[in-house]
Every structure is written in structure tokens, then in C-alpha cells.
Amino acid sequence: MQMKKVEYTVDLNHLDRIDDMALNLQAGDTIFIDNIPFQWRDFFSILTTSAIVITAVSNLILVSTR
Question: What is the pTM of this model?
Fold first, then answer.
């Protein structure tokens, strides 16, 4: 199965000009949001990584105390 890359640029200031049929998402589609400042990307990557580590450690503690 060959994947076809199609890029749509959506101007959120002019939502009335969006072709809604072109924006139907399918399984496996990816959405990239450009306008997030780089600092927020760093913050969210650190936040999600630390949440995963904290969850793993708390699960290990919970299992070891039983």
C-alpha cells in the first residue's frame, strides 16, 4: 500500500473559506500545527515524558507493595 502525502493549509481566521469535504480525516492521518511557539513544544514533550515515567514508577511501587 503506497501512501500519498497531501498537504492542506487552513487559515483559521477565515473558516468560511474551508472546503470541508477536503478535510475529512481518515485512519492514520496526521495533523501538524505550526503556530505553537517552540517553548510550548519543549514543555509538552517534557510533561508527557515525565508523566509516562511517573506512571511507570507508581505502577512498579503499587505492584511491589502487594
Answer: 0.40
DSSP 36: S
> Could you tell me if residue 49 is inside a domain?
yes
Q: What is the CA radius of gyration of the chain?
A: 20
Domain range holding 34? 12-64
Q: For residue 29, give the nearest of 1, 62, 44, 7 by alpha carbon.
A: 7
Domain count, the chain: 1
Q: Could you report the per-residue pLDDT of 20-64, keeping only the tens digit for each? A: 766 777 777 777 776 666 677 778 888 999 999 999 999 999 999
End-to-end CA distance of the chain: 48
